[in-house]
Amino acid sequence: MDRKARRKFIEQLVNDRKIETQDELLQLLTEAGVETTQATISRDIHALNIVKANDGKGHTYYVQLHLAPEHDFNRLYQGIHDNVRTIETVQFLNVVKTALNSSYATILAGMFDELDIPEVVGTIAGNDTLIIISKDNADAKLVYNLITKHINARIV
């Protein structure tokens, strides 16, 4: 199976099932006759915008981010409003804290990465902490302002 077909199959699996680990995904692929490695699965997950989501009951599973271009910024603003708790700027970095144990930092990072905002060089995300990297302090301040504007704003 070539890369394109494998990725399409991974999308189908993630959308049809609640897969909790890469090992589980690898096992499902193997059972379907798809030979691949853990490293390849990891790259596929990243390329397909697949992230871990929390079901609110202590379980996490993979979901695929689907960002429609016309709604990207509204989804980002709503995500900031609903999930960002604090933000602090440290020189050219913004450290964003999201809802505790929500895994939302990863989802928010994906949104920032997808939008290709000029003031954002890249992101690093953990469970509830997101680091947004800018090229300089001025750009970091613009990102800070964008986030603080929407932390308590209502999206209509």
Amount of beta strand:
15-25%
The average pLDDT score comes to 86
Rough outline: elongated
How are the strands ordered across the major sheet?
A: 3-4-6-5
Q: State the distance separating the first and last CA atoms.
A: 45 Å
State the order of secondary-structure elements, H for helix, E for strand.
HHHEEHEEHEEH
The whole-angstrom Rg is 17 Å
Number of helical elements: 6
Largest sheet: 4 strands, antiparallel
- Determine the fraction of residues in helical runs and give it as a percent range: 40-55%
Unreliable stretches (pLDDT < 50, length at least 5) are none
Describe the structure.
47% of the residues lie in helices and 21% in strands. The protein is of the alpha+beta class and 156 residues long. It has helices spanning 3-16, 22-31, 38-47, 72-83, 104-115, 137-151; strands at 50-54, 60-64, 84-90, 93-98, 122-125, 129-133. Helix 4 runs antiparallel to helix 5 (104-115). 21% of the residues are buried.
Brief sketch in words of this structure:
The chain is an alpha+beta fold. The protein is 47% helix and 21% strand.
Write a concise keyword list for the protein shown above:
single chain; 156 residues; alpha+beta; 4-stranded antiparallel β-sheet; two-stranded antiparallel sheet; 6 helices; 6 strands
Secondary structure: elements and pairs:
Blueprint lengths: L2 H14 L5 H10 L6 H10 L2 E5 L5 E5 L7 H12 E7 L2 E6 L5 H12 L6 E4 L3 E5 L3 H15 L5
Antiparallel strand pairs: 1-2, 3-4, 4-6, 5-6
